[in-house]
């Protein structure tokens, strides 16, 4: 009886103890995304961090966070972070999908009905974000996002942002009136920053990579052949040398191609975020503000070089330092703030290096597979044209106007053909996915069908969904600029990401349980005392304590 009484008293005291570590109501919430920052990378480099990632690791650190859906790409992943919804709720099922009426590809942040194909905005996003909730609760809240990618900035911003910035090759940081206000107060700071940067670059061409890398990174430097493209594996990469002697190099395609996948790109984003914080006076208004910053270079480096070489080793040190500079800026404001950090998806190394290191992997020509399937179906079934359009998320869409009477037989024949292929692990149809109930909880234990279901949208999901075998690298690189490695699978190396919460004075805790990126928005809403709608995620009591309702 005494033990029961003591246990009851401890249970009553636990929330109070937790709440003692809670921050005051923040004046600024900061959502940091590191593109393609898998939990595998986090685990591998965690002990080497000395900057921002080390500081955030001292907060409430979940090493088993999940982008629990199947569509592990940039746009879907960013869409989950501040909406609390899976892609099945955000409608952002992939970076691109096929319009069933036209057969044309639809980019996730393209704007329907706009004659300008380059128009960008959140119109395809079917959910509201934390920023939208904050603006509804108090219109004085400001919502600002910055990223190296348009889709990352827009997905974090939502529908009512005050300023949405992304890097546009050759132009610098830009915005769009379809994504957020494009008033002089928004566009002029970007124009001044861009002019300053380009002037410095023309006066003294920038170093895209450090001249010397840490010894731990140079130890990884060795040549590889990915597909038919040979990489030196050295720092700095050979292609980065000699390109900046062109008079127009800041706007040249060659320079921009290298810039995104270099050690210069994330510091550039951090510098601009610093400028935006001051220009918008974030955290110093009458209400709580929201800043979203998405660092994109880890993804570009992972695609261009794989994540197992010297290039990614250097990039980890660079993004650690960039986040450290951002946190130092936040410290200087003298206001209470809260930071959350996660990734939009993970990634795997290039198949060739995975195999060299003892992990079975293979390179897959997904577009070639789709072409071979179409050829086989035409031959066997006497079809006048190819029945399927391949979409980048390893989905197949029946062509517009395809005979409905043949849709069922052709789909069944295609599934049977695909299941004979050695590179294919699993094939499901849209009807099979639609029949799966939406799962609740347990992100690590979701079946493959449930992972597909969390990415399902009745209008935007393909007719056939393909899962390639583990550690597959999609594509056949032949030159610099081609992707040698990537992501987008249902496997945990693409789904598992770190999720970190930090504020000044936080009591550091490492949590082993699995949580989801959809839990971030309701948790931050609770800390900001902002009402949140019912979403797929839950408020994390381990973080927000009694603030959760």
Give an account of the 3D structure.
The chain is α/β, with parallel strands linked by helices. The chain has 21 helices and 20 strands. The strands form five sheets. Strands 1, 2, 5, 6, 7, 10, 11, 18, 19 and 20 form a ten-stranded mixed sheet that branches. Strands 13-14-16-15 form a four-stranded antiparallel sheet. Strands 3-4 form a two-stranded antiparallel sheet. It starts with a helix and ends in a 5-residue tail after the last helix.
Number of strands: 20
Low-confidence stretches: 1-20
Give the distance, in angstroms, between the N- and C-terminal Cα atoms: 31 Å
Largest sheet, strands/sense/barrel: 10 strands, mixed
Q: Compute the average pLDDT.
A: 93
Backbone CA Rg? 24 Å
CATH top level label of the largest domain:
Alpha Beta
What oligomeric state do these chains adopt? single chain
Number of domains: 2
CATH homologous superfamily of the largest domain, by name? Answer: Alkaline Phosphatase, subunit A
Global structural class: alpha/beta
Q: What is the CATH architecture descriptor of the largest domain?
A: 3-Layer(aba) Sandwich
Approximate strand percentage: 15-25%
Helical stretch tally: 21
Report the CATH topology name of the largest domain.
Alkaline Phosphatase, subunit A
Shape: globular
Helix content: 25-40%
Function: Alkaline phosphatase with broad substrate specificity.
Signal peptide: 1-20
Catalytic activity: a phosphate monoester + H2O = an alcohol + phosphate
Enzyme class: hydrolase
